[in-house]
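Researcher: We're teaching a course module on how sequence relates to structure. For the next exercise, students receive a sequence and then see the predicted structure as C-alpha cells, so they can try to spot secondary structure elements on their own. Here is the exercise chain.
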Amino acid sequence: MPLRIIYLVAFLEWFSTLAVEIVAMRIAIPVVGSSIVLTSVFLWVVLLALSAWYRSGGVLSSKMNTHQRVVALGWSLLFAGVWYLLISFAWERQLLEFMIESSWSYLLTLFVVAWALFFLPVFVASHTIPLLTDLLDEPSKGKAAGVILFASTVGSFFGSTVTSIILFEKIWVSMTWVLVWCWLIFLSSFVLYRSKKKLSLLSFLLWVFLSSWYLLNQQWTSVVYSFDSAYQQIEVYDAESKGKSIRVFSTNGAYSSAIYLDDQEDESPFKYINEILRISDIVKPKKVLIIGAAWFVYPQLLSSRQYVEDIVAVDIDPSVKRITEEYFFNESLESKIEFIPRSARGVIYDFEKEWERFDLIFLDAYNDKSVPEELVSLEFFEDVSALLTEGGVIAANMILDPSFESDFSQSSLSTMGAWIWSLRSKNVTGNPWSVLDNVMVLNREFTWYTPVSVSKQIYTDDRSRAGVDNVKMLYLQK
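Model: And here is the predicted structure for the students to work with:
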C-alpha cells in the first residue's frame, strides 16, 4: 500500500474517532446535561478501547501477511462505520433516557451507554495503528510507529477542532456523524479495492444505500426551523396555547421561550417573561444585562419601554441571533439591544475591569435539561453582584422543584444567598401537578415574593456537583 494511502487512512480514521467521541457527548448533553463527569466517563471508555486493541491488534497483526492485514483493515473500518450508524448514534438518546429513568443512577447510566454503544466500534477500528505500522516498508519499528502516530495524532487534532468549531456550525450534529460513518465505509471500500477483493463493491453499495436512506428520511419535519449548533439542539415550531397561535423556541428538548404570532400582543405566553417585565416596570432600569439572551423575547419586549436606554444580551451560542431574527421574530432586533456572543464569565470579567454597571441583571441561562456549572458557582454570583448599581436588582429564572427539596435546589439557592442579600423567590409556573417549575429569585423585597432560607453545601468553581444534581432532580425528583 502506498505511503500516501497509509497516511490518509491513519488521518481519517483518527479524525473519525475523535469526532465520534465529541458527537457522542454532544448528543448526551440534552438528556443528562453537561458535566465534567460526562466527559470523563466517555473519555475513559474510548481510551480503554484504544489501549485494549493496541495490545491485541499488535498480536493479531504479527500473525498476518501483508494481504491479510489490508483485508482486516478494510473489514474493521466497515464494521465501525455500520455500527456507528445503525447502533451508536441511532440509539444513544433512547438508551440514555431509558437508563436514567430505570436505574436512578447518573454514573451507571453513563458507563452503560458509553460501554454498550462505543467500546466495541472504537475497539475494532483502532487496530488500524498496528496494522498500518506493519504495512509500512520501514526496517525500523520505531520509525514506522512514529510515522503512523504522527498521521493519527494530526487526525485527532483536526477531528476535535474541526468537528466542534466548523462541522457542528455548518452541517449540524446529525450530519456530522453521517459524515463520519460515510468516511469510514468509503475508506473500507477503498482499502478492500486495493486488496483486490470483490467485497469492496458490497461496501460501496452499502454506503450509497445508507446515505440515500438517511437523506430521504431527513426531509420529513414539521418544525419551522431545526438546527444543531455546537452548543445545543434548537427547534422553532408553531403551536397553540389557550386558543392563541404561538411560536416556540426549544433548546435541548426544553421549552425555552415563546411569542404570540398576533402582532398586537405585548406579552409572552411564558409567565416568567411577563414576571420579569413586571419587575422591570417597577424598577425602571436604564441599563439592563441579560445572561442567556432569553431568546431575545424579554429584551425585544423591554426595548419598547422608554425608561430603558441600553440592553446587553449575552449568550455563548453565536447562532441564536441569526435564528431568532430569521425564524422566530421574522424581524431584526431593536437598536437598543446589543448582543455579545461569548461566555458569560468572560464578559462579566471584562465589564468588571471596565467598571460597567447595570440597574437590572437577569440570569436566564438555565433550563431543565442543561445547567452550565460555571453559572451556578459562588464565584459567578460574586462577580455578577459586583456589576450592580446601588439599589440594583438581580433576578434569576431558575428551573427547580416546587418544594426546594432536591440537592440542586438547595445548593443553588444557598450559593446565590451567599452573595445576594435578602434572597426571595416566587413560583412563576404555579401548576400543582408540575414536577419542575420556573422559580424567579430576586435580591429585592416585594410583597408577593417569599423569603428564601436554605442551608446546604454551596457550589464553587473548585467543587461543584451542579450538573449531576440537576439530572437527579430532573429524573429522580429528589
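Model: If you want an answer key for the exercise: The chain is about 55% helix and 15% strand. Residues 136 and 431 are 67 Å apart (CA to CA).
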